[in-house]
Amino acid sequence: MDVDCEGCAGCCIDWRPVSPAPSDHERRGPRRPLDDVYNLVPLTRDEVAAFVRAGFGDVLVPRMWAADDESDAAVEVDGVRVAAVGDRPAFFVGLRKPPKPVAPFGTERTWLDACVFLDPETLQCRIHDDDLYPDECADYPGHNLALDQRSECERVEEAFGGDRLLDADAPDVSGLLLGPHAVGSKLFAYPDADELAGTVERMRRGDLTDADRAAFVGVAVGSRPGSTEVDESRAAAARESVLDAASWAGEAVEAWTELAGSVDADDAPAGESVEVARGAPETPGWDDAA
Q1: Which InterPro entries match (predicted)?
Q2: What is the pLDDT of residues 108-151, one digit of tens each?
Q3: 175-178: long-range contacts at Cβ-Cβ below 8 A with a sequence spacing of 24 or more?
Q4: What average pLDDT does range 86-95 have in this prediction?
Q5: Taking the domains of the chain in order of start, what are their residue ranges?
Q6: Model-level pTM?
């Protein structure tokens, strides 16, 4: 896609607090997420497994949806009708978004929820040239255009001016899994709803535990494409890897979250001291960007 991303990262940041007009989640379906994470990037099973193998299991987070329509397949968890595949709660797995001190679109430095891999100074992705870079990110906003949905590029143009989406023709995109084809590959089914007691409320609060996240990630890694069945041995190994993970990115999530509760954004440290010092790769900046 031909887009101008310099100084933007609108697809990687929850910029609703600095938007001049109210904005809801970018959605591609009718169901309401239980969480309030803006623009969650849905990862495929193979991508989830790759993050776990690379030691980044601690930056993965699940999403479930409320089943508002009585005709939707649903299962009750904590008194809430949760969207389901058959009798199993449905979920995605994406990347965590801690608060970071960022200044997109020429705004003042502000605490905004941002992708765990986003450099808060350059607003570039730290894994852009890595094998871990998700297809959903690489194709953005191709999926939106293919589905005739507005993109963050267009929303940023409307709110702050300028040209961000430089090519509005829908490209041939990979990874656009829809309907039954997504089950077990991008849309996962948790095998035992009773195990999720308490999870709905924690997900709504943005307060999932490490064990909560590990359980969902394990199911995703153990899932079989085209099926709701789960290989328990694969799932158990992934759960353990997530609980053992101590990546620079996971540590940075905790550091940024603590700082956001105690320091003004103007006084917050740079990403170099919070992320690079913990092992994050540096980003090239825009002068050297291709």
Answers
A1: DUF7531
A2: 999 999 999 999 999 999 999 999 999 999 988 887 777 778 88
A3: 175/44, 175/135, 175/136, 175/139, 175/143, 176/139, 176/143, 176/146, 176/147, 177/44
A4: 96
A5: 16-273
A6: 0.93
Q: Which two tokens stand for residue 80?
A: 């809430």
**pLDDT value of residue 165:** 87
CA proximity to 214, closest of 224, 226, 222: 222
Please say if the pLDDT value at position 288 is more than 90. no
SS (H, E, C) the chain: CCECCCCCCCCCECCHHHCCCCCCCCCCCCCEECCCCCCCCCCCHHHHHHHHHCCCHHHEEEECEECCCCCCCEEEECCEEEEEECCEEEEEEEECCCEEEECHHHCCCEEEEECCCECCCCCCECCCCCCCCCHHHHHCCHHHHHCCCCCHHHHHHHHHCCCCECCCCCCCCCCCCCHHHHECCCEEECCCHHHHCCHHHHHHHCCCCHHHHHHHHHHHHHECCCCCCECHHHHHHHHHHHHHCCCHHHHHHHHHHHHHCCCCHHHCCCHHHHCHHHCCCCCCCCCCCC
Q: Which residues touch 59 (CB under 8 Å, ≥6 apart)?
A: 51, 95, 96, 116, 117, 247, 249, 250, 253
Residues in the chain: 290
Q: Compute the Cα dihedral for 21, 27, 31, 35 and give only its sign.
A: negative
**What are the tokens at 33?**
């997420």
> What distance in Å separates the CA atoms of residue 9 and residue 152, rounded to the nearest whole number?
9
pLDDT of residue 43: 97
pLDDT at 148: 77
Tokens of 175: 């990874």
State how beta strands 32-33 and 80-85 pair: unpaired
> Which structure tokens are listed for 235?
């799932």
